[in-house]
Specification:
By secondary structure, the chain is of the alpha/beta class. The protein contains eleven helices and 18 strands. Strands 1, 2, 3, 4, 11, 12, 13, 14, 15, 16, 17 and 18 form a twelve-stranded mixed β-sheet that branches. It has a three-stranded antiparallel β-sheet with strand order 5-6-9, with no helix packed on it. Helix 9 crosses helix 11. The protein is globular and about 70 Å long.
Length: 436
């Protein structure tokens, strides 16, 4: 049992998480909100194109591409002697993204063409009040400016086919053809040549529609996150995977005082599509930042490699909670309980990067922080998802543990998790980043 003070702290943490998720409908919004919170805590941005001056105790962050961010507190000791303590998560979530020429006219209606990003549960997007969010490139004189947009009113919809025309839907499941049935209903076609989407974007940005050059726009649910359950012990929202881990890692870093080691929190885009991009965990960003931090703190020669050898990385993603409605989907000896504590994720094929030494270390952090923990293994005959953990471990040669808070309905447009688990995850990460 938790004390009343602990329950109150967990509830406040959950409410702040829901506010963070609601304000972060796209990876670009996530990074903007991360930067704002970091700036408020005294962190200062470093530009990749500049020389870096980093001193022990310095608090900085680096943004690449507007959708990935790495923040750190420089340690009192040189990285070659103390290493790095690293936590990482991802800023993207699976869903639907607009095509460049999105407007489709036909049958007296206007629809928006979309592509599937990652592996969402497509059926959960049907009959929802959907908006749009992301980044728009606007012409500004002879250059271009990136602007964030969030059309959070009910704007578009994927309307289900009536059961009278799809009698097997309850037995066979809802199956949506990606090309023909996923385009979003937007408006009646009044015959005007103007694009109503351009008009909506221009109105929100306060620019003429002709100045809009390009966009990265994703479909988002307009229903805000909420607490639920008889005792309000659960949360529901979009993008819990993986903004719950992002929020926990940020809070952990913001609580770090002056460590001997350099404490780092890294947030990457494109995890849901494999991470192979300039801003993904399979790219050079992490290695570039760590090398430059080590160099700014006096590393030379083999010091960067020595620093990595003394480091440990926590890959914080989400984990599959036991759902009693579908018992055959789970490994019998590894049922994760919601509000049972963070899960340590295992896979011998290295879909997760945990191994016994890094697992023992994470258990030690949990015990020191008073946090319960669980273990997760996927059923042997089912394909296991992966994380940024194996990518970082193989690219940088850093000991890694994969962990995650339990959740239900991963990759649904409306996911659920426990109030206590995200709070406990933050406490475990804080212990790791502060004390190592």
């Amino acid at each position: 049992m938790n004390s009343p003070d602990a329950d109150l702290a967990a509830r406040e943490h959950a409410c702040d998480l829901l506010q963070f998720i609601d304000a972060s409908p796209s990876p670009w919004h996530v990074v903007s909100n991360l930067a704002r919170r970091l700036e408020g805590a005294g962190y200062r941005e470093l530009q990749e194109c500049d020389d870096w001056v980093v001193r022990p105790g310095g608090r900085h962050y680096v943004i690449r591409g507007g959708s990935s961010l790495i923040a750190f507190v420089a340690g009192a000791a040189a990285p070659a002697h103390a290493g790095f303590r690293l936590a990482g998560a991802h800023t993207d979530s699976p869903g639907l993204r607009l095509k460049p020429r999105a407007l489709i006219r036909g049958g007296g209606l206007l629809r928006l063409g979309v592509e599937v990003y990652g592996g969402p549960i497509l059926a959960t997007f049907s009959d929802r009040d959907l908006g749009l969010a992301g980044r728009v490139q606007v012409r500004s004189g002879r250059s271009f400016e990136a602007r964030l947009v969030h059309l959070d009113q009910p704007l578009a919809r994927i309307a289900n086919l009536a059961i009278h025309m799809n009698r097997e839907v309850n037995e066979q499941g809802l199956k949506l053809h990606r090309q023909h049935e996923l385009p979003l209903l937007l408006a009646l076609d009044g015959g005007a040549v103007d694009d109503p989407l351009d008009t909506l974007l221009a109105q929100q940005l306060g620019v003429p529609a002709g100045q809009i050059v390009a966009w990265d726009l994703m479909v988002c649910d307009t229903q805000p996150g909420s607490l639920w359950g008889a005792r309000q012990e659960f949360i529901a929202a979009s993008r819990i995977d993986n903004l719950a881990s992002t929020h926990a890692a940020l809070g952990a870093l913001l609580g770090v005082e002056q460590p001997a080691h350099t404490a780092v929190a890294a947030f990457f885009d494109h995890e849901e599509v494999g991470s192979a991009s300039s801003v993904g965990a399979a790219g050079s960003l992490f290695e570039d930042v760590l090398a430059r931090v080590a160099a700014a703190l006096g590393a030379h020669g083999s010091d960067a490699a020595r620093a990595r050898a003394r480091s440990v990385f926590i890959s914080a993603d989400m984990a599959h909670a036991w759902n009693p409605g579908f018992p055959a989907a789970y490994e019998p000896q590894h049922h994760l309980m919601v509000n049972g504590g963070p899960a340590i994720k295992h896979n011998v094929s290295q879909r997760y990067a945990s191994e016994s030494a890094s697992v023992a270390r994470f258990i030690g952090w949990c015990e020191a922080a008073g946090v319960p923990f669980q273990s997760y293994v996927h059923r042997s005959e089912l394909g296991c998802g992966s994380t940024i953990g194996p990518l970082v471990a193989s690219r940088l040669g850093i000991a890694t543990v994969d962990v995650g808070a339990p959740m239900w309905a991963m990759h649904s447009v409306r996911e659920s998790a426990g109030v206590l688990d995200s709070w406990w995850m933050g406490k475990a990460l804080a212990q790791a980043l502060q004390y190592g």
